[in-house]
Amino acid sequence: MDLSVIKAASLDLESLPSQPTVSSFQQLRETFIQSKSEDWYLKNGLFFRYYSFLKSSLENATLDGPSQVACLDTISVWLRRIFNACKQDPEISKYVWDTMELKFWTNLFSLPANKISIPGLTGVQVAVKDVFSKSLQLYLLVCPSEDIKNDFLLDSLKHALHWDRHAKVVCTAIQLLVKVTGAEAVFAFQPDFFEQSLKLLKDYSYAQAISSTILTVLTLRFKSLSEETEDREEVETKWMNIWCPIILYEFYGNDRQVQAGMSSFLIPSLLGVSPGITVKFLSRLQNYPNVSKDARDAACLYALKIAKDSKIIKNLDLVKEHAFVKTLFKHPDIKIQLACFRLIALCPNVSSPLSFEDFDCLESNIEFSFNVLDPDSRQILLKSMQDFFIRLRASCHSIARTMRSRHSDKVALSGLLDRAMQFLTSFISVCKKHLYPTCNYQQVLVSLSFLDTLISFGLDDNVESSSIREAQHDFPFSMVIIDRDLSRLMIDRLKDPYDDIRNLCLKILLSYKSLPGFISDSDAYFLFNHGLELLNAVRSHECDGGAKTIYLCNHFMEKSVPGSVLANTKVILNRLKSNIEHAKTSLLEAAVNCPLQGYLIQLTYIFQSLSPTIVKNDNESWKNIVMELIKASETIWGLIKDVLCDDSPEGNLPDGEGEGGIVSNLEDTPAQLILSYSWRSLKETSSLLTVLLTKCLSLFDEEFTPFTLNYYGELMMTWLWEIRHRGAFTSVYPCFIEYCSFLFECNKHEISELPDPWLHKNLSVIQEKSSFITRRSGGIPLSITAILVAGKDKREQLIEQTVISLISIAKQPVEQKNIAGQFDLPQVHAMNTLKTIFTEHRLSSVSVEYLEPAIALSIEGFSHELWPIRNCSVMLFTALINRAFGSKKPKDAVNLGNNKGLSTKMFFSKFPTLHDYLLRELEVSVASLSSNDQPSTGLYPILNMFSRLQYAQPYGNENEWTGLSQFEPLIFKCTASRICKVREIASLSLTCLLDCSKMTTFIVSQLKGVAGLQQNEIHGKLLTIRAVLSCFFSKLTLQQVQEFYEVVPLAFINCFLEFTSSKTSFYAKKLFLEVLNSYFMSNTDSNAKRLQQLRRMTMDYCKRMLLDRKANVTNVFNTIGLPIHQQMAATIFLENLKEFSVYCDAHSIGFLVSKLLHYEFYEVQLTTLRSIVDSPRKKIIVNNPEILQALIKLTPRNQWSQVRALALSLLSDSLNSTSYRLLGISCSDMVSNILSNECLPIKESFIVLLGSCIKQLKTENFLEYKVTFAKWVEILLSYSNEYQPFSSRKAALDSIIHFDLFNAESTAEAFSFEFYILYLLLGDFLNDDDEEIRSLAANHAYQVLGTSAQCVTEIWNLWKLRTKATFGGQHDFQHCINKRLILEDGCELASVQLDNALSRNCSLFERERQNLYYSDNQKLEDLLFYASYPNEKLKDWATDGINAILSRFEDVSRDGPLGKTSDPNVWFTIYKIIRIAEHVHLPLDRVHSLMNRIDGHPSFCQ
After folding, report:
1. How far is Cα 341 from Cα 602, in angstroms, rounded to an integer?
2. How far apart, in whole angstroms, are the C-alpha atoms of residue 1295 and residue 1272?
3. What is the mean pLDDT of residues 910-939?
């Protein structure tokens, strides 16, 4: 800025505008900065001259947001210059005090409360903090009287303590004030300051600021206590009594968010205040009463972590003092296990060495890390392991450096280094074990992630330097991480079904200088040939595995034999051409035997990584390959075009493809095979073509002329225009974006301009083509959007012309054509394209500028006469709303006091033209609604928009925004509409017009004058009250809640009779009861007399309506809505029955509940049943004789299935000898029902009930018990299968739990037959795929075992021991184990199982295991734990298996990586044969010799 301008402005106050702007404030701020010091010493200087202006500006509520921030920045500089002047001249200090009014000081000190945030601006709190701190400095300097100073600052502190501390500037203000006033003032003004502050830690984003505030107050209090007495022990005890009880209560509470805030920020600082605090805190933590040992240990674990992170505790004593930490590795909560690992493995001082006990503990418990199922916990684990390796490296380096010292204990230090190496070796072997085939996803992923992290630390000399992370020091030793066996396992995993596992394996292998264990050329060519075989696979993950294998081979082969990549590419190209020729003859045969996708994927990999150096060595050959591939892309398109462009591509079978012998041998339908072949081929073709066009322009520019590039761009657009299969054209979309981006960024003008005319061509296609009429316009919107996304530099220009053109097309009148009764609807395509543009997140910053005309277009489309346009208008409106409002969270989702929605003022300031448009449309719609009760369909989107807005809260001295004053009466009219849906959405819309603080007054006003209103008006008022309460009640302050319960209950009491009269509809009554139940019936405050009166009146009404038949009208017309009204009445009655039982006359609770179970409406019956199910006293309630009788009457077939299913499941909790006879259903009848064609919920309820009945039958009729038990076991086996749905498996588990293994275990006769099956089934449930089932099974298992709660893995280990000890010697048990071991898919012979595994399955999809938690090899090892020795059955089976292995692989010359023995099915079959053979002590020398000869899987070689 020109200095002369500044000086001129500083001399002329009149030059400042009456309504200052950002520029005027910036100019004035520069004036203050550039001014001389003497200008501030004069009484008529810069201070006095601008005081009035700045004072009025601070109070000006009409300033926009940027101007307010600029004003604060200017005042900050002004205050600093005044402060400096006052320090130099006391006279100026006195003058400032006399001039600045108390109101101005008050405004300055109130800024943190009034200017917490300004919508749309950042940095507001920083500016406010700066002004507040400078204001406090100046006030302390200029105030002449200590009394005045203390009174003002204490009053400021008192107000500040009531401000919203969800703002960091408020926390800072309190800290600054407390440092002046002292901590005693805080506790005087707010005795529960610490308790209130602790609750605010729930929001982690503010936890640090709030913790700093708490710490400031408590530290000052500690200093004041220290001044009172010199006894440090007494000071620490008194000080801890202030905060420790509340901290301990939260430590053992259930609020994880508060605990996280305390642990991260508050407690470490508190423990560091004085040396003795930590010991006292841990002592109080360990002696906290009324908590379990597990909870106490877990809390101590967190405390130890805090102390260790704070460097208060340096080393853990895992042998004595902290031995409990080792047991917590078996805790049920995975977060506790992770905390144990982090506590031992990590240390703030990374060079601190681990002890032998630390290594032993980690090594013995490291298995826990491979069973982490939760993705978030897994990320924490991986980061923790990385930090652990950093510490291990630093500590080993430190040890090695110390060993060079002359006085060091070299023997002890050398032992620590050796132990570190032993740990790493053991760790790698554990990772290796979890890479074997059939290991579950999380085990493989964690293992690979660990290894990927470990190799980046430079331990292995064979790792490329580019793959090693930079560090100041290295490990003092080296070791081989990936050996031949691990390398083989990773290569095998290249065809894993999961993308992330395949990619991670390839990344690890490529990080090595040479492929570990495969260094010869023959190894590379062998791998290459295996990769070629996989390229011809049907399944996509196998194709990709083959492509990755060849990519891996190319990477290493090119290093040793230059030109290998070219030679390999030619081989792949020839195979691709051969398969294309097969497709010309028969698409079906090509889909089965000669797919294209694998070769296309591989070629894409080759050209993505192709370096110019390789091309230069044989330029002409590479050019020929590129041109052949580009032509091949057109050939492929010609082959698959008819399939993908068919009106019904999913069921299209080209002529002649359904004939021939190949069809009879297919496992998939021909149409499915051809379609999959076609769209996958196109997907990979588009990807390859894009890579070729973008990569090779710089290599062969003479071949890729603008004409050629334009031709293939139009070809891609043709794919998007004509293809009907959504999977196909959506796969082209990202490729077309990449291609257009490349063209736009090209430095050649004639190429960079190519996409522009494509955009116009797309717009022409919308109007010209009528063959694309689909509900979402196929790929046309993607074709246009791709160009807009790609044109980064031209994006604003392109979007402007595109959106304007599309809106113009969408507004064109529809012309009907009588050709085959179809419509040519470019309007539909235009609106669908707009929807795609506004949905695309990469265009959000630009597209939002055109939201206003698009919203208007979509609203008008709601009223269109044609359904296709109305339909796409709805979809467009949804996309626009999501773009305007961002998050899809419900409106009432509040984040701890932060209003993060879009206010009405902000919305209409962003989209100003919508104000008049929406008002005009709303007036028309309401007028139509009033005249003929037929709303314009545009009314719904308008009200929907308002329902998503929030009230425009004024900031500071701003006046309330009145921009919606014209909308308010219109929306209120809608709440009284005769159309229910209009009333509902209008009531939600009203919430944006109401200030939360005025909610109580508003509700009272709504409840006045209810008498005489029509039913629709009453219903509308109740809907409005419900919407307002739902939106605002959770945001009320404690004082506002108290006011609410003092005022509103009386208003409800006054109109209670009107709402519940016979004239009021049951819909309105139900809504009335719903409001009472949600906001009044749960409040049991006995001091609120009016509230309790309202609750009693509600309870009496519900009882009268439910139990007094005369209270219900008999006129059929007046009973509309009665069932749902009675359902809500039943909900209230049942939830409060125990509390109000004194008002239930002489009737018992059992009688009242049984009456509801017999009610005429099934809604009431369902509500009653669900209330019993959810009750913690369920068993007591069900065993009430009257309730039991009622439940039994709900079990016959003529009852509604949902009612019947719930009743049956409840009866399982009630059975005793009396109730069993009353039930009237025998166990055989239950079995018949389960085996019948009853609906699944009924069957599952009978299964649960059957477990209880058999338990009772055991004591009454043992013969029948034995027969029924066997049938029950068969049912459990069929319903516990992993392929059964969750509800069926849970029903089977519940049946076992109701049978009660704990009590049944003591019955001797139970062990005389198949009782062991229940133990085996419970073991299966302990390893179920669903965590809820595992937890339920673990709860029952540790009750039977008599142990404390532990992790499921540990419970399972104990359960295995108990099962074997109890049943291991029984013949039937061993027979069952043998059957489980050797039976596979109904086949018993090992040789047949091996043949089945070896046979190639050409189906598109394999049958996937549903249990991804419990792997096959884990299950095998557990079954072998039970199996006896000697065991002739297993011996015969294993012998057959060994002979099968020897014969099937006798002629194999080499199996190797990706070979047959690496196939998961083949591997597991062979592994099972070998493990069972080892169990029965059969010799395996021939098998091991064979596997060594053919290079079989490492687990089979010795």
Report:
1. 42
2. 9
3. 85
Identify whether the C-beta of residue 759 lies closer than 8 Å to the C-beta of residue 798: yes
* CB-based contacts of 283, cutoff 8 Å, min separation 6: none
Q: Express each pLDDT in 1388-1398 by its tens digit.
A: 899 999 999 89
Distance CA 329, CA 335 (A): 10
Q: In this predicted model, what pLDDT tens digit does every residue of 1345-1371 receive, in sequence order?
A: 888 778 888 899 999 999 999 898 888
For residues 879 and 904, membership in a common domain is answered with no
**In this structure, are 957 and 975 located in the same domain?**
yes
- Write out the two tokens for 261: 């805030």
- Per-residue confidence (pLDDT) for residue 894, from 0 to 100: 31
Indicate whether 836 and 727 sit together in one domain.
Answer: yes
Q: Of the candidates 445, 462, 481, which is a domain's last residue?
A: 481
Element (H, E) at 999: helix 999-1007
**Coil, strand or helix at 1404:** coil
pLDDT of residue 631: 93
Exposure of 329 in the CB half-sphere (CA atoms within 13 A):
21
Selected residue with higher pLDDT from 1111 and 226? 226
Half-sphere exposure of 1195 (CA within 13 A, CB side): 23
Report yes or no on 1184 lying in a domain: no
Same-domain check for residues 870 and 918: no
**pLDDT higher than 80, residue 728:** yes
Backbone angles phi, psi at 816, to 5 degrees: -85, 135
Of the candidates 351, 354, 297, 302, the residue with the CA atom closest to the CA atom of residue 326: 297
Amino acid 655: pLDDT? 58
**Alpha-carbon distance 217 to 193, whole Å?**
10
Q: Residue 427: what pLDDT?
A: 96
pLDDT at 43: 59
- pLDDT of 1001 > 60? The answer is yes
Question: Looking at residue 1218, what is its pLDDT?
Answer: 61
Q: For residue 1433, how many C-alpha atoms fall within 13 Å in the half-sphere facing its CB?
A: 15
Q: Rounded distance, CA 788 to CA 741, Å?
A: 10
Last residue of a domain, one of 948, 964, 993: 993
pLDDT in the model for residue 900? 41
Q: What is the pLDDT of residues 225-241, one digit of tens each?
A: 888 888 888 888 889 88
What is the model's pLDDT at position 1146? 46
Is there a domain that residue 372 lies in? yes
Contact 692, 630 (CB under 8 A): yes
Alpha helical stretches, state H, 586-618: 587-593, 597-608, 612-617
Q: Is the pLDDT reported for residue 757 higher than 90?
A: yes
Q: Which residues contact 141 (CB under 8 A, 6 or more apart)?
A: 83, 86, 87, 93
Residue with token string 């015969």: 1436
Contacts of 1456 (CB under 8 A, 6+ apart): 526, 527, 530, 1495
CA distance 463 to 452: 11
Q: What range does the domain containing 838 cover?
A: 707-886
pTM equals: 0.80
CA distance 787 to 696: 21
Tell me how far apart the alpha carbons of residues 285 and 1404 are, in angstroms, rounded to a whole number: 59
Burial string for 628-655 (b: 16+ CB within 10 Å, else e) reads ebbebbeebbebbbebbbbeebeebbbe
Contact at 8 Å (CB) between 974 and 983?
A: yes
461 shares a domain with 435: yes
Domain shared by 225 and 136, yes or no: no
* Within-domain flag for 447: yes
Q: Count of domains in the chain?
A: 6
For residues 510 and 44, which has the higher predicted lDDT (pLDDT)?
510
User: What CATH number is associated with residue 810?
Assistant: 1.25.40
* 740 and 771 belong to one structural domain: yes
**Residue 1384, beta-bridge partner list:** 1387
Residues 761 and 877 in one domain: yes
Across all residues in the chain, what is the average pLDDT? 85
Q: Confirm whether 1271 is domain-assigned.
A: no
Q: pLDDT (tens digit, 9 = 90+) per residue, 852-897?
A: 999 999 999 998 888 888 989 999 999 999 888 875 544 443 322 3
